[in-house]
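Retro notes
What went well: the complex prediction finally ran end to end.
Inputs used:
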Amino acid sequence: MDIPYKIYLNEDEMPRAWYNLRADMKNKPAPLLNPATHEPMTASELAPVFCEELIAQELDNDTAYFPIPDEVFNFYKMYRPSPLVRAYCLEKELGTPAKIYYKFEGNNTSGSHKLNSAIAQAYYAKKQGLKGVTTETGAGQWGTALSMACAYLGLDCRVYMVKVSYEQKPFRREVMRTYGATVTPSPSMSTEIGKKILSEHPGTTGSLGCAISEAVEAATTTEGYRYVLGSVLNQVLLHQSIIGLETEAALKKYGIKPDIIIGCAGGGSNLGGLIAPFMRDKIKGVADYRIIAVEPASCPSFTRGVYAYDFCDTGKVCPLAKMYTLGSGFIPAPNHAGGLRYHGMSSTLSQLYDDGLMEAISVPQTEVFKAAERFARVEGILPAPESSHAIKAAIDEAEKCRETGEEKTIVFGLTGTGYFDMVAYEKFHDGKMDDYIPTDEDLAVGLSQLPKI
Amino acid sequence: MDIPYKIYLNEDEMPRAWYNLRADMKNKPAPLLNPATHEPMTASELAPVFCEELIAQELDNDTAYFPIPDEVFNFYKMYRPSPLVRAYCLEKELGTPAKIYYKFEGNNTSGSHKLNSAIAQAYYAKKQGLKGVTTETGAGQWGTALSMACAYLGLDCRVYMVKVSYEQKPFRREVMRTYGATVTPSPSMSTEIGKKILSEHPGTTGSLGCAISEAVEAATTTEGYRYVLGSVLNQVLLHQSIIGLETEAALKKYGIKPDIIIGCAGGGSNLGGLIAPFMRDKIKGVADYRIIAVEPASCPSFTRGVYAYDFCDTGKVCPLAKMYTLGSGFIPAPNHAGGLRYHGMSSTLSQLYDDGLMEAISVPQTEVFKAAERFARVEGILPAPESSHAIKAAIDEAEKCRETGEEKTIVFGLTGTGYFDMVAYEKFHDGKMDDYIPTDEDLAVGLSQLPKI
């Protein structure tokens, strides 16, 4: 059977339920802990911050499938199924016998996979009768996705955007405004924590940790609001399983069996979603795959971090999570893959990695952009810097196949487009991109500040 | 039969030939004239500027179908077929009994339909053994598309970008550089005409007319290069017929019969492509449709221009074309739909309009952005300002149906995305957008300068 350039499922072939990988994990991810008592967080303790049904999803390690609500499914139909693309042109360019596929999540206005969870979270907030949600955004993909979802459902959306991004990425900000969101540069005078930070550090350009703190405060102090988050959490990986389930269905439609599955890893939302059904089969022993997480060398939580309980945010207001971490005090070097600059990693993926069920590698920035440009010129799509980490690893694996003559099938996640990242591409073209890699001494600073559990 | 949100053709249902509407037109479009002799341009006169096979396509009013070369078809498969989307959410938002469909051409890195002709023109240049091509770009969509096509084929690409855009749209420039194009701000010191303009007007920020002149000079004075163009020409409409042919096939697949077909109109490339097969049936009397061209009120060539021979460029170096025109000396007011700011209109569409086979309306800018934002919030896609002219007209027609209760089927062309147009959206959000409409006295200036044929 000839394999088309793009495999699209029909609407009636789209998955109707999300898959919860935790239900099939032998070693469950460690629970979130209350930072004061070090006891597992309960649903009622989480209720002031998160929506009820999302808390239930967060804490559920047993239910394998959660039906996708009709309203969410209808929204999915506006931009899903996303194509599974056969990279014929990249294969030709590389002269490799490997067969390369990528699941492309960039064909929606948020430009990434983030929309898959944004609509789900906004839906449950609406169902609970809330007026609106708050969140933080750094590079802006998550904020854009949430704005789109809220506009669709008629929910208010308040985004705290790291001030330096707010000023340097005005276009992202305008996209969010187009969808009716209120975008506030963080730190701001609209919250107590914002005022405190501004009085202590006048002129600060903000940080993700600070923006999280402001968004959480705004949610908990405003009647009818809750806080939502775009990565790291179990619930997000659950919603993102749509990526893996569609990929699995598309591969099965043409009888394709992958050997290697590759995804970029920041907080883990895309990787966790992509690998979910494949990891299930691997755990059950019905199939075997190499599963590779790719992270930036500047922020190597899997490859150079430790597996320990840590704060999820630099403000230390959130519950503690057990994860591969560089320490919440670790400040990653400036890197253009903003979506991968997180000190920790999803608890679920951390447990799987600790169990030896997946591999991890780190790659330097300039190599990533070289791969991105090479990919763009033959496959047409201009990839996001985050996604390009997976491209780099896929190209490396395909080139190994060229050496060995093996016809391996490689599947990778292309999470998004780079249209709002052209400053990064410009630096790359002008030879002004740096490849800072933290020294062991740099890492020791963050790791020395881990909480003692 | 339930109609899905997105109708995708399978690869084997994709059109294998472009359709040349001129073959079925009773009144053929008037020929290009030599500006010196006022005689029809011959193939040999055009050969120093254009590629041979493209000249043949340009001059052919008889051949109805041109097979799409395999290499072009393979490239099409990377981003086509484009979806025909049922705008269920927009229909619900409007409370209309009308059924609304849009053909979405924005799901590729150029962000628009321009890629359809770029790959065809680059292919014929490569086939002729040329080293490269030159072109001009204003807003940057065409330059991006041509860069992508040339990168794929290994052809050199030299883009003259209007200096003001080069400076104000650095991201567009970087996308082109990512695809390996040389981007030169125009006017430049690299051509004689550029030097002349710079000496006469030091500090000028350039114009499309000047960039065209530089690109043509560069092509005709460099061994192994030709000039290519993204709109207006017959050959471009031929390649863009893929839009209409796919739309026709997708509608037939579900037994849908349109009543109204709407497209935005600048030089005519998108509109001419979208309507091609429908206009064929209308000419042959086997179907009837209302076909509506939508242009900006600031540059109303159909609605307030005259049908006459005119220069295609402000530099008056190109052949004369008979078209609806505001005069090559007409300077459109600053308008954020850069792709629609052309003083003239495709000769083919001009003849059809003159024959009463299509309608035209003009719409003011702020109304267009209101429609764009309303569309984005319910349909998810952030539209380009150009495309939003068609959205505005489609919404108006659907609202008429709400009043009359008629269940009309409306199809419009959504030519591209607005990711690189956020400055325009920002002005709209901040209430700083103007709606300048030329007075009759303004128009008289351009119309007084028409050549006397």
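What we learned: The radius of gyration of chain B is 21 Å.
What to try next: split runs per interface for comparison.
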